[in-house]
Amino acid sequence: MILDDTNSTSLVVNLVIVGFHHKKGHQIEYSYPLAKESLDEQWSNILSYALPDGAHNREKDLIYFHIPSLDKETNVQRTLFGIAAYRQIDAN
Asked: What GO CC terms are in its UniProt record (predicted)?
């Protein structure tokens, strides 16, 4: 979940669900409101933020990160605050 630090009406800017496939690696399973393809181009590193190396060694965890805003309308460079929560589930 990517949060906005301004006084806008909604604090949630984007919601991205990332999964991990044992053969394909990190994959975006769901994205709102941006399309998956748009995220791949502009935030190519969001997958490694959401599920970092070594995540398989932990049952669950919460990760906090910062990512540059995609909003180019203002001349001010903004940083968005991200939260990634993951847990392992039984393959059965």
From this structure: cytoplasm
User: DSSP code of 91?
Assistant: -
Note whether residue 59 is domain-resident: yes
**DSSP β-ladder status, 12-21 and 79-87:** unpaired
Sign of CA dihedral 39, 26, 31, 65: negative
Band (pLDDT 50/70/90 cuts) for residue 10 is low
Q: What is the residue range of 75's domain?
A: 15-87
The predicted-structure confidence for 29-49, as pLDDT tens digits, reads as follows 888 877 767 776 777 788 777
Name the one residue in this structure whose structure tokens are 């605050």: 81
Distance set, CA 36 to CA 23, 32, 55 (Å): 19, 9, 22
Angle (nearest 5°) at CA 27 between 63 and 69: 55
pTM above 0.85, yes or no: no
Has residue 2 been placed in a domain?
no
